[in-house]
């Protein structure tokens, strides 16, 4: 077994808040991998780790060469846009089993993690030809991933984050266009927003945790130590809020009542948070929060630098970079399958499909058209 660009991927995992021990635990636990039966035409093998956090996918040698050749560009894009929805590549490997040829595979973070509450999954390319999913005979034990024609007239309701998503899709597809890549997919998972999700999003502890998470992404090649310390999500909401306002909250704590119960109590926002916000000036608030966030100040959220990197306030979830909360639903979004280059062979395929499927749109079109078409799909299906 061989590992490629190991130090680079290790630093990138640190940037994403993944400790090497946790990463290795998911990959080497005694539980068997789960084989993912895909309807992809690539004939690649897919496997999920038992905790369903990471995907393992076999790749052709030329695809591995393409990824490693453009790895620097990919990481530069992640540095420039830390909240990119491109799939997160976590490692590249090859393995030789007895009496078999060498096989290459990559490890990716699953866009649909955690999966337990997701009710619908879609693989979107922005075209119609072949873009539907045949129903299974017994769908009770099969997780269906639907396609463009199955999505129909549904919409993704995001409110204020609709503009952010559209712009981020434009930024990410422009990057892929520059690499002459086509045939990638926008994954969309739909989960009803439960009461506990709504409540947690509104507590001060989680607001502060979300703010800290949103401004703490620094690319590991430049700030390895900071990325390691800032991207950790092990501290609870109570730790966050007590570290920020220990003097103010001390009088509200009781020996028989842990901080977690204080933060989650119904009267917390009304009796504690609101009075504090009203008696604290914005300047004091920025300085206090800024010190806890290891950032210059909370004004980073509206600074030119923050806007230039096209960041957003991330949800305090297990997979924040691929999660967007709307009024009623939580959406999991990510762009995957970044290995198909628009070569001369693909140009011939485009010509053949344009003749066979006259008047219909297929996935094989030149990169600028592919990028524009996916952006148009997002614009027409989000509100």
From TrEMBL:
Stored SMART domains: PIPKc
Any single GO BP term: phosphatidylinositol phosphate biosynthetic process
Location of the PIPK domain: 1-382
Pfam hit, one: PIP5K
Protein origin, superkingdom: Eukaryota
SUPFAM superfamilies listed in its UniProt record: SAICAR synthase-like
GO cellular component: cell projection; cytosol; plasma membrane
Entry's Gene Ontology molecular function annotations: 1-phosphatidylinositol-4-phosphate 5-kinase activity; ATP binding
Keyword annotations of the record: ATP-binding, Kinase, Nucleotide-binding, Transferase
Name of the featured protein: Phosphatidylinositol-4-phosphate 5-kinase like 1
Organism: Pseudonaja textilis
Gene this chain is encoded by: PIP5KL1
